[in-house]
Amino acid sequence: MDALKKLSEEASRCAKCGTCLLNCPLYPETLLEQNSSRGKLSLIESLAQGEITATRRLSDILSQCLICNTCGEGCPNQVKTEETFLNARRELCSRRGLPLPKKFIFRYILNSLRIVPALLKAGSLIQGIVFKRIPSESGLRLRFSLPLIDKRRFIPALPKKFFKESYPAVVTAPREKMKIAYFAGCATNYIFPGSGYAAMNILNRHGVSVVIPEKQVCCGLMAFGSGDWKSSRKMALQNIEAFEKNEVEYIVTTCASCGAALKKYYPMLFEDAGDDVKQRVARFSNRIIDISDFLINKVRVLEQPVKLTSDISNNTNRKIRVTYHDPCHLHRSQGISKPPRELLKSIPGFEFVEMENAGTCCGMGGSFNITHYDLSLKILDKKLESLKKSGAQILVTGCMGCMLQFMDGIYQKGMDVKVMHLAEVLD
Ligand code: SF4
Ligand code: SF4
Question: Rounded to the nearest whole angstrom, what is the distance from the C-alpha of residue 78 to the centroid of ligand 1?
Fold first, then answer.
């Protein structure tokens, strides 16, 4: 079906009932109809029917959305809001193009195996000049404002060694029972290598050998969310090719956003492709699995004699209070919310507490957090209130984007809560 007709038909299915206004994390912050799903769908319908044109203002309005799919999940008419918003952004991008810096980054930087590490390696060497180190935290703050980076922002320091530099192509488990492939993703590789090391340790301890294909690149989610499907497809095909050589049953991810891109969005990207390409994409996407799901349902770690974690409370009778934030890309995009909780509850010495609204978006929303920083922080404020009420000492999550967002908010509010990836806590 013609793309515009499809867009118009889906958007016109909205009954304007307003149910989605109640749960949207963004709408209550502005009370602007254009920020609600209903408002955006109405504009998209008008665009698809030629009643309005693809202006810069329309691009701005459609970029004011976290693509969290809370609206789609609760819609009584089952309007495919997420798909419709993403397709509308694609339409706008094809008519208006992208701002030059974004275009350059998506087309020439993120898909490069050499440029990204070289730039970030240089960045790690000069970060002390541009940033101030935050004592007592492994973080940084800008000394002066830079375009798109707010001076208030907490930024984790870049590591000296990136994740992929630390491992050979195959990490063999001492008593191998199974072999999988691992998709690291940019944030694990360049910002949070510790979560990747932890994942390798846990997998190896349970007899799982890990293949880390050298030629994997960025998952392409940022380009996809900005409507640049051409760049995103290029990265997708590079990744598919990099993993095709390994005939393993599963490709494990530790970042919910990468996982959602590889599993859910890649098939969308190639909807119009020929059957042979679609089959390659499906073969790849069907093998993607989040580490929590993999540990619980494939390795069955809770039924094994090998201990998942050691009892870190041995020297004290006090238990460590831990809570969990559901990344949108894990529980709504991949349907995974139970396995991380089962794993956390199994750790001796931990007291798991459920925080209020654990499944509400944290306000990160990919580049939303860069382009609408103040709004993003306002959305996060509500999550931080829930976190405070829970009394947790550690906030655990499974998405690198959510980790960055919480670290920033917690630092700015002066809260005494540590943010950790699930794999780090288990290790
Ligand atoms: S809940 Fe669904 S039908 Fe109702 S206004 Fe929102 S998108 Fe439209
Ligand atoms: S995707 Fe999320 S932020 Fe966007 S309109 Fe729907 S509920 Fe609101």
Answer: 8
